[in-house]
C-alpha cells in the first residue's frame, strides 16, 4: 500500500514536470515567432530563394516596405559573375531612377508610390539565357507605367548580346524583322490604330532590343503602349528560325545547344515565313468571298483547299462557340492568308440583347480566336446583319462588315442554283455572303472560285478589299 502511494506520487510529479516543460517550450517558441515577425516588418534587405524551375538559379528579393518610396524587386543570380553583376546593376539603377523621379517630382511624403520588378527566365539552354523583367512604376500622375526589359546572354562567352550578334554581318535581318513586326502587329486593331506602329517597327536595331532566343524560334517583345483604355499588354511575336535560315549564325540555330533546360510552353503567335507582298492590283477587279457560321470540318476544308489552289483569299466570320472544336482550321485559315472575322458566340440577334450579353457575344469570341491562333479579328459581322448604335458601342472600334450579294445558299441547298445566282450578280468590289457549314455551299464555292478566277477577278479578304478601296478612294459598300 505504501509502495503504491509512493509510486502514485512519482507519477504525479512526472506529469507536473512534463506539463511545466511543455509550457516553457511553448512560451519560448511564441517569443521567437513574435521577434521574427517584428524583425520582418523592419527588415529592408535581401531575401534569397532558389528558383523553383531552375535549381541553380537563386531569386534575390529587395523589399522596402513603405507606401512612399517603397519597392519590391526580384532578380535572379546564376552564380556567373559577369551576368550576376549586370543584372544587379540593372535593378539598382531602376531603383535609383525611381527614387530620383520621386525626389524630382517632389511627391509629398503621404502619397504612396510603387516600383515592382518581377522576372521570367524565358529560355535557359547551353547556348543562351534570356531574362525578361516586367516593371511597374507609379510616381504620381494618373497611371502607373508598365515596361519590360530583356537580357540575353551568350553563355559560352558570358556576354550580353543584341540581335545583331546572332546574325551574320551585312545580312538584311533588320528589314526582315521590320516587315514581320509591322505585318503582325497591324493585325491587332489597337496597334493598327496607333500612329506609332510604323515608327516602332522601322528597321532600326533599337526597335528590336527586346528579344529571346528559344529552341526553334526567336521571340520579339514590344513595350506596352498607352492607348485610349490605358496600357496595352506586352506584345510578342515568335518567328521560326527557319525564316532566317541563311543569315542566322549556326551556334544560335543548333537545336542541341539551344534546347531549353526545362520544357517551355510553345509561343502562341508564331510566324513561319516572311510576309509576302499582297500582290493585289487595285486597278484590276476585286471581289470578297465571305463565309459565315463556321468553322466546320468538311465544308470549310473544301473551301480552304480551293482557295489555296487558286492563290485566293476569303474571310471567314466564325462563331466563338464552334472555334474550340476546330482550332487547327482557324490556324490554317490564317496561315494561308485568309481573314478570320467575328460572327458572335452563338448567333443571337445582338440588337435584342443587353449590353452585358452583347459584350459576352463579342469579346468571348475575340478571346477564343486569340487563344487558339494568337490573332484578334478586326471585323465583325453581326448575325442577320442586325446592328444599332448600342451594339456598335460594344465593339471597341471593330469594323462592321455586311455584304452586297446574298444567294441565300442556306435556303437553296443546291450547288448549281447557288453558283448561277452568285455569278449573275458579281461585279467589281462586291462582297458575297455564303455559309461554310453546308456541303452544297462548299461545292458551289469551289465552282465560284474557279469561275471568278477565269473572269480575272482577284479574290481578296475584307481587309484587303478595304485597302484596295482606300487606294481607289472609294467607300466600302454596306448591305445592299
Ligand atoms: Zn450567320
Describe the model.
The chain has three domains: 41-161, Heat Shock Protein 90; 162-275; 286-472, Glycoside hydrolase/deacetylase (TIM Barrel, Alpha-Beta Barrel), CATH 3.20.20.370. Helix 7 (298-309) packs parallel to helix 14 and helix 13 runs parallel beside helix 14 (439-454). It has a seven-stranded mixed β-sheet with strand order 1-2-3-4-5-6-7, with helices on one face. Mean pLDDT is 88; it is low at 34-44. It is globular. The longest helix is centred in the first third of the chain and has 41 residues, at 2-42. By secondary structure, the chain is α/β, with parallel strands linked by helices. The chain has helices spanning 2-42, 81-104, 173-185, 189-193, 197-200, 250-253, 298-309, 320-323, 327-335, 355-373, 389-392, 409-412, 415-425, 439-454, 462-472, and strands spanning 46-50, 58-64, 71-77, 114-124, 128-138, 145-154, 159-160, 211-213, 217-222, 226-227, 230-231, 235-240, 270-271, 286-292, 315-318, 339-342, 379-380, 399-400, 431-435, 458-459. Zinc ion binds at residues 292-293, 343, 347, 383. Zinc ion (ZN) is lined by residues 292-293, 343, 347, 383.
